[in-house]
Amino acid sequence: QRAWRRDLRIHLASLLARGHGDAGCGVNLLLVDDDLVDVMAVRRAVRKSKRECKLWVAGDGEEALALLRDPNDRLPKPLIILLDLNMPRMDGHTFLREVRADLDHRDVEVFVMTTSTSKRDMAASHQAKVSGYLNKNELGDDLIGLIAVLEDAAA
């Protein structure tokens, strides 16, 4: 668990240091997950966070791509995507391939957040240049720790 916290802190600090978006814009998260319990847990953690943290939710990869590519309502940067792998319509692996092929979004920070412990899923995710692979079972029910790491790194 310490490893994912360290990796997340390093990647977020690096992202914010690159100067994307407005200084002090807080954390912008796009959660791509079809599990309503997980969505509610992340929403609860975001509400309890002490700093500005904006959250957008997509129920699958198609919906997430529509949000990312909407010319009338661009998601702010820096943006971090928390991505589940097992979803209907468009799964996380297909979403990752689409994002990495998209010139406007290929460098977005993506953290896979899934229950999958499959070595094949892990290898495919890392091959798609994800910033981290977080196992939901290791995060536990309380995702406030994840948001706290985001806040600390953004401070």
Key features?
alpha/beta, 5-stranded parallel sheet, 155 residues
- Estimate the global geometry from the Cα principal axes: globular
Largest sheet: 5 strands, parallel
Strand residue content: 15-25%
- End-to-end Cα distance, whole Å, is 21 Å
Average pLDDT for all residues: 77
Percent of residues in helical segments? 40-55%
Q: Strand-and-helix sequence, N→C?
A: HEHEHEHEHEHH
SS class: alpha/beta
Rg over CA atoms, rounded to whole Å, is 14 Å
The count of strands amounts to 5
Which regions are unreliable across 5 or more consecutive residues at pLDDT < 50?
A: 19-25
**Strand line-up in the sheet with most strands:** 2-1-3-4-5
Q: What is the helix tally?
A: 7
Short structural description:
The protein is α/β, with parallel strands linked by helices and 155 residues long. The protein is built from seven helices and five strands, in the order αβαβαβαβαβαα. Helices cover 46% and strands 17% of the residues.
Structure description:
This protein has 155 residues and is α/β, with parallel strands linked by helices. Helix content is 46%, strand content 17%. β4 (109-114), α5 and β5 form a beta-alpha-beta unit.
Summarize the helices and strands and which ones pair or pack.
Blueprint: H1 2-17, E1 27-32, H2 36-48, E2 53-58, H3 61-69, E3 79-83, H4 92-101, E4 109-114, H5 119-127, E5 132-135, H6 136-139, H7 144-154
Parallel strand pairs: 1-2, 1-3, 3-4, 4-5
